[in-house]
Protein 1
Amino acid sequence: MIPVNEPLIGQAEIDNVVDALRSGWISSAGTYLGQFEREFAAYCGRRHGIAVTNGTAALQLAVSCLDLEPSAEIIMPSFTIISCALAVIYNGAVPVLVDADADTWCMDVSQIEAKVTSRTRAIMPVHIYGHPVDMDAVRTVAQRHGLAVIEDAAEAHGAEYRGGKCGGFGDISCFSFYANKIVTTGEGGMLLTDDDAVAAAARSRRNLCFGSEQRFVHEDFGDNFRMTNVQAALGVGQLERIEATVARKRQVAAAYSAGLAGLPLRMPVEREWAKSVYWMFGVVLDDSVPFDADGFGRRLAERGVQTRSFFTGMHRQPVLLDQGFFGCESYPVTDRLAERGLYLPSGQAITDEQVAAVIAAIRDALEERT
Ligand SMILES: Cc1ncc(COP(=O)(O)O)c(C=O)c1O
């Protein structure tokens, strides 16, 4: 089976991790942690990096730093991972959805302003599968209505919007370093910001808000969202070769695009203002194909290719509907992506031969028209 993702761990990462282990600094103090935060923040052009346990925690902590009143609203895409909605809800706020753009699969920025109410406090754009959101459009609405922007760049390390790195656009920007991400620490995440006060609050809250004078006297709610020095050591090694990783992702995407041309499926676009990192190479079946993404995935599995279905929309999540969110709302583009989209093996360790085998399997599976 060609796996949908396989990470690539180089010698630099192994050396760093061994060094961290030998140093004895295996929890959340140690030099690799500060180094990773500084270097990743600098890579994205930001002043502060605050490393945390995962991308979900990063989003949760980011929303908490907005210090929202109950029932504040945050506008976010329907087509995303549940982490985004949970980050809003766990902070007592209300997620408000906009549908996806049929081409980029990111939030349809033309729908944002219609969702702004007197309770709206923030917009949460998510760069889906490595393609940037049109951030000028997001920021225009945010500025007009005095809203914060929480940028979810979990899938977009190294991607660019009009020449600026993704992660550089939010008041607070969030990343994941899960094993399938462009930079991995196994599990991990980071908040980036230029705001000193937000950075200080995030640092304190990721560490239980220990007292500055008396350690065990707490004046605010916090969490234990600390990343370990061992994870950061892995991240420092990964970050050293991020440009090569991004170049390889783009090469794999070009090979898929060429090899799948002419088939009845839609492939990722790259807008003229975007540099996509094609974190995962997704395809969406045309209506002429007589099976959906599940059927396609099964057919590819029979041919030795592992795939992953696209996100199911937030308005289709039983856990959120049970809580009274998104009643009878309809997001048809998201539904279509969920029904007809899946992503192909795209991990860092994929070989050219594997890409060719995936292309052959797809061509074969699409000939089976029933
Ligand atoms: C867009 C997006 N946001 C947030 C997350 C959450 O990151 P994590 O899995 O590290 O909690 C993910 C995870 O894959 C993601 O794809």
Note: Residues 54-56, 80-81, 83, 126, 152, 154-155, 176, 178, 189 surround pyridoxal-5'-phosphate (CB under 6 Å).
Protein 2
Amino acid sequence: MCAATAGYRGRSVLLLEHSNKIGRKILMSGGGRCNFTNLHNSPSNYLSANPHFCKSALSRYPAARFIELVERHGIDYHEKTLGQLFCDVSSKEILQLLLTECDWAGVDIRTDSTIYRIDKNADGYRVKTSAGIWQCQSLVIATGGLSIPNGGATPFAYETAKQFGLKVLPLQAALVPFTLQPKDLEVFKPLSGVSHRIRASIRDTAFVENLLFTHRGLSGPAILQISSYWDPGAEVEIDLFPELDLLQWLGEQREERPKADIRTLLGQQMHKRVVQTFCDLWSFEGPINRFDSRQLAAVADAFHRWVVKPAGTEGYRTAEVTRGGIDTDEVSSKTFEAKKVAGLYFIGECLDVTGHLGGHNFQFAWACGDAAGQYV
Ligand SMILES: Cc1cc2nc3c(=O)[nH]c(=O)nc-3n(C[C@H](O)[C@H](O)[C@H](O)COP(=O)(O)OP(=O)(O)OC[C@H]3O[C@@H](n4cnc5c(N)ncnc54)[C@H](O)[C@@H]3O)c2cc1C
């Protein structure tokens, strides 16, 4: 995005990619259909030490601008859920869109280019690579975060930032499944593959979406979203009935079907195997008329406030993004140029701006690519 924008301004642009293919994450995104933006995108969809930083770029390049580009390239798309836009056919179309734009803008793309060294000199930057030595006036680092190391991710952006004396905030895998403590895994592993709508919360942040039990722990959109707010050792509170007042409903059931087993009744509201697992765990069994009001309140409370202490996360191997990164205080929110290093720019995921699940990470990447592309 940055290369094409700069190319259209008549700049001579060289794009260096260390792997043999560009845009790998685009190809693997959205289950192969690339969730390329979100209709409801706003600055509130991002985590950052400075929540205001992303505002300028997003307001200059909102989701509508990328949608317009997608339409101009004749790519069919649809809204899946919650404003998330996906290609009808394939992620390849989004990569092709960018390649076409780069081609029209005269960008020279070189793959298999390992960058060995960057030196600042009087004319800008001297970049020594496996494919030759280049001299440039502006150098844009857009090498992303640490997730999916076997897909080409490297810590290059963070190392370059440090080389030029810029602060890098602590990094952590985000939008990532949780692993469970061994005793919890023993209980929940048999539910592997089952999903259920929940509210996952940490302090005052909550997401109501699906949870997916896995053979390692917990995943699904609600878990991926809340994982971005999780720190090792913290607890996650899960409401297994986010849209039901369980105490009231159980009270009504006790009136209407007093002899019905509590598990049978709960089985009307969630997957029977999930009911059985939790009822075994908390020893809830028998006809509902044997539960007095205090016991019924305890049942409702247990299901509304299941507290999980994850063992950890699956880490960068499966994380969609990296939380933290180059301190946004070091970079102009207008141009993305490093404030104390003229001609050096950082854009995309390497910055301390982490989007929610749902197309927000690409939207930020497009927006800052467009912004920096106007100034390099
Ligand atoms: C499995 C998966 C699915 C995802 N799905 C979505 C989705 O549907 N919607 C969404 O919004 N976000 C999604 N994301 C997140 C999104 O892909 C990233 O946030 C986004 O790609 C970041 O863009 P970027 O340009 O900053 O970095 P990247 O897209 O990671 O691009 C960085 C590029 O730099 C190259 N590179 C790395 N190191 C070097 C080096 N040392 N020298 C030269 N080149 C280097 C890499 O090979 C790569 O091509 C997904 C991520 C993953 C892992």
Note: The longest strand covers residues 205-213.
